């Protein structure tokens, strides 16, 4: 198992866990079998030329694109268990954390991993419970003929997704708590950042307080949007292409929203500015 920690902006980074290659003859767990079957069904619907299946896939893919990239990153970590954890502690097993030392300082690696593991844990728990509670209310939609109960399947997926993110968060927390990680900066990853972002500022770990009091420079994108395929090629991890593309797209939208909000605030201030009395009239 390898962990990739790739700076996306001067404040945000993508985390992704590349799992060990599974044994082809090994028996899949029930959740993995359900996930595999769902992926096969989704691919079949995606290949449809038209109809409600194609429509569902089209809108579904748009929805998946908007799921926070941090959630996708946590879901890439396999759920752990006490027996496996005990073995890893006894063997002092170390997991490589791949990062670019020419962009990110080694001392920031555990800080960023801890933030990604813990800052959204309560949110995933709340939404996991919320999805569970809401699912029974979608049962009446099953009475609609031909079309499957889309609201129920959506909530079931979001429930599973938040559960997997929680388990991934716990796994990452365990790795951090027992220092079972080994930061490594391969030359090819450093060269990648030199190639795609030669003039970009370095990643800087900042606290929420620093962001709120404006004591840090404005956030800037480090990894360009069109670099996702190159990232996958250099790292040898095809899945990173989609992960990086989704993450950068979301960050660009975040920047656009923040820019619009700032412009609206400035306009509001200018509009509410009291006018000077004209005493000459």
TrEMBL record:
One matching Pfam family? Mit_KHE1
InterPro entries linked: Mit_KHE1 (IPR018786)
A Gene Ontology term for the protein's cellular component: mitochondrial inner membrane
Instruction: Tell me the segments the record calls region Disordered.
Output: 257-281
Single biological process term from Gene Ontology:
proton transmembrane transport
What's the protein here called? Mitochondrial K+-H+ exchange-related-domain-containing protein
Source species of the chain = Exophiala xenobiotica
